[in-house]
Specification:
rod-shaped, alpha+beta, six-stranded mixed barrel, 11 strands
């Protein structure tokens, strides 16, 4: 019998004839492999699935005009297509454009947003809408607006674009400068934008005082609106200031169909039907939503969007890279910024998950090392006489050490195979239960799990193998 054949014969007997000891080593490797593979699969899949879930709660990237000249005309369609191509170059994304204007309803100032209802609905699936979304001749109002006006679904409201609002808000544009132009922007831009809103509100307050002096009605409506605008969106202030800038530049007052007037007591305008009421519990509740075409007709002019929101299937460094790419583009007259509230939540949750993974993984690795090491030590002690006899017959310490090392690797391989399978089942059940989505098998992660199981088993066997190679055959035989 050759040495190689003798080696495999001894290995076979050690693994399959001593099943109880071998089973303990396999179970130790199995538990470690199952736990590590399950945690690793969850840590790989959960950030991606969580990012997809978070995308249902609105935009994580905002694009606004960067130059002062660009703000008056908004973001044109060519620029929007160029930015969209940059955003969607490596990631899927949904987008929606908003045009904001200052209008009056029952002599009270409000902000109206011209939108494509289909795009906004796809971007903000978390919005709670009672009734229908805006369409031609129909508007969707925020809950705060509905409560202030006392309207419900099916009611009719008269909306007019007032040139006086644009003129009194002209000074707010210079104060606002490059403040944020969207309800979901980071808090860093709120203070500047609110100053623009306050400028508009001061004008409204002055108008309200004038009305009170004349003994007219409408003072209550204006005062009630001031409270609403105090909690209004950043986009609302931006829309009013942009409208002021455009009016100051043109110096004209459109009078198409009587929609534009400088008299705040003029109740003429365009009648719309309230098709729905949106209730988000946020700043969206203080805005009126209409189609882009209706807003353009109401204002008497067509222009680009004030804000373009993107829900990009990216996060962390990938999302920051998209923002940097847009802002570094010299041909783009826009600036991009992440929505801090959403992106920071993503990062915080993922960081907590990764920290938990490393802590549990470290504990599992230590337990696996202890389990496999203890089992191999027990096997070495049980086979001490056999090792002494083999060394007396001429077996080298290297051959004995190689046998125990390969034996430990086999235990790790068997335990890794079954452990990886069990870990995948557990991870799949967890993903289906929590995210209601199936989890595919990651072959690269599976191979890594097998290799790690074998490596841990081999490392755990080093101390007992060293003891086995140091056994003195004379002492062992004398004991016999």
């Amino acid at each position: 019998m050759t040495n190689r054949r003798m080696f495999f014969t001894m290995l076979w007997g050690a693994v399959f004839r001593r099943r109880s000891r071998a089973m303990m080593a396999v179970i130790a490797s199995l538990v470690g492999a199952a736990t590590l593979f399950c945690l690793a699969s969850v840590c790989v899949a959960v950030p991606r699935q969580m990012n997809e879930e978070m995308r249902e709660y609105g935009a994580n990237l905002i694009v606004t005009p960067s130059a002062a000249s660009g703000k008056s005309q908004g973001i044109d369609s060519a620029t929007m297509r160029a930015v969209t191509s940059l955003v969607t170059a490596g990631h899927s994304a949904k987008s929606a454009a908003y045009r904001y204007e200052s209008v009056r309803v029952n002599s009270a100032p409000y902000t109206i947003a011209g939108v494509d209802a289909k795009s906004v609905r796809a971007l903000n699936r978390h919005w709670n809408v009672t009734g229908d979304w805006s369409s031609a001749g129909n508007v969707m109002v925020g809950r705060d607006v509905a409560d202030a006006l006392g309207v419900k679904v099916g009611s009719r409201v008269t909306i007019a674009y007032r040139s006086s609002d644009a003129q009194t808000s002209d000074s707010a544009e210079s104060d606002k400068q490059s403040s944020k132009s969207d309800p979901r922007m980071s808090d860093s831009g709120e203070s500047d934008t609110k100053s623009a809103q306050n400028g508009s509100q001061m004008s409204d307050s002055a108008e309200s005082d004038a009305q009170s002096a004349e003994g007219t009605e409408g003072t209550e409506g204006t005062d009630g609106t001031e409270d609403t605008e105090d909690t209004g969106t950043d986009a609302q202030g931006a829309g009013e200031a942009d409208a002021a800038s455009r009016s100051a530049e043109t110096g004209t007052h459109a009078t198409e169909n009587g929609r534009v007037s400088s008299d705040i007591m003029d109740t003429d305008g365009t009648e719309f039907r309230v098709s729905g009421i949106v209730d988000t519990g946020g700043n969206e509740d203080s805005i009126i939503y209409a189609t882009t075409a209706d807003v353009a007709k109401l204002a008497g002019s067509k222009r680009g969007a004030d804000v373009v929101e993107y829900s990009v299937n990216a996060m962390g460094d990938d999302l920051n890279a998209i923002v940097d790419g847009i802002n570094r583009n010299p041909n783009s007259a826009v600036k991009a910024q992440t929505v801090t509230r959403i992106t920071s939540s993503d990062t915080r949750i993922i960081a907590m998950l990764q920290t938990l993974f490393w802590i549990v993984s470290l504990v599992v690795l230590v337990l696996t090392l202890v389990g496999v090491g203890t089992t191999i030590s027990s096997i070495v002690s049980q086979r001490r006489n056999e090792i002494g006899l083999r060394k007396a017959l001429g077996a080298s310490s290297r051959a004995i050490g190689a046998e125990f090392t390969v034996e430990s690797a086999i235990y790790g391989l068997i335990g890794g195979l079954f452990g990886t399978a069990i870990g995948y089942v557990l991870a799949r059940i967890l993903c289906v239960t929590v995210f209601d989505r199936a989890l595919g098998f990651n072959w690269l992660l599976g191979i890594a799990s097998l290799m790690l199981s074998m490596l841990i088993a081999v490392i755990a066997s080093i101390p007992p193998v060293r003891r086995a190679t140091r056994i003195d055959p004379a002492i062992v035989l004398r004991e016999e």
